[in-house]
């Protein structure tokens, strides 16, 4: 059974940084897409970054500010977020076994971790 547990969210001022973590268990070994999505109140869930080593994919809105990485030894997915903006405020979700940044293709999701950026 696949389980994804996010951590690392919090409140930060604009321009600050946060690193999100997603501990995965039961994910199929080998090449698979893992990704970060986010959803703000009243909006649709949007793809932020995805990884299928060695390839990475980013939303235009975070390109150059966010970095996705995967520690296979620790079964942990990371999202390093720098130069945070108020519009980055959302619930962030980890997802596994999908395709790039399309949420409809991901069958496995974590519970989410809240990121709040104050201006």
**Class derived from helix and strand content:** mainly beta
Task: Write the H/E string, N to C.
Answer: EEEEEEEEEEE
- Main sheet properties: 7 strands, mixed
Shape: globular
Treating each run of at least 4 consecutive H or I residues as one helix, how many helices? 0
Sheet-strand content, in percent, reads over 45%
Helix content: under 10%
Number of strand segments: 11
What separation lies between the terminal Cα atoms?
Answer: 40 Å
Q: Mean of the pLDDT scores?
A: 94
List the uncertain runs: none
| Rg, nearest Å | 13 Å
Give an overview in words.
With 119 residues, the protein is mainly β. 0% of the residues lie in helices and 54% in strands. It contains no helices and eleven strands. It has strands spanning 3-7, 10-13, 18-25, 33-39, 46-52, 55-58, 66-71, 76-81, 90-98, 108-109, 113-118. Strands 2, 4, 5, 6, 9, 10 and 11 form a seven-stranded mixed sheet that branches. A four-stranded antiparallel sheet has the order 1-3-8-7, with no helix packed on it.
Concise structural overview:
It is built from no helices and 11 strands.
Show the helix and strand layout.
Elements: E1 3-7, E2 10-13, E3 18-25, E4 33-39, E5 46-52, E6 55-58, E7 66-71, E8 76-81, E9 90-98, E10 108-109, E11 113-118
Parallel strand pairs: 2-11
Antiparallel strand pairs: 1-3, 3-8, 4-5, 4-9, 5-6, 7-8, 9-10, 9-11
What keywords describe this structure?
single chain, mainly beta, 4-stranded antiparallel beta sheet, 11 strands, globular
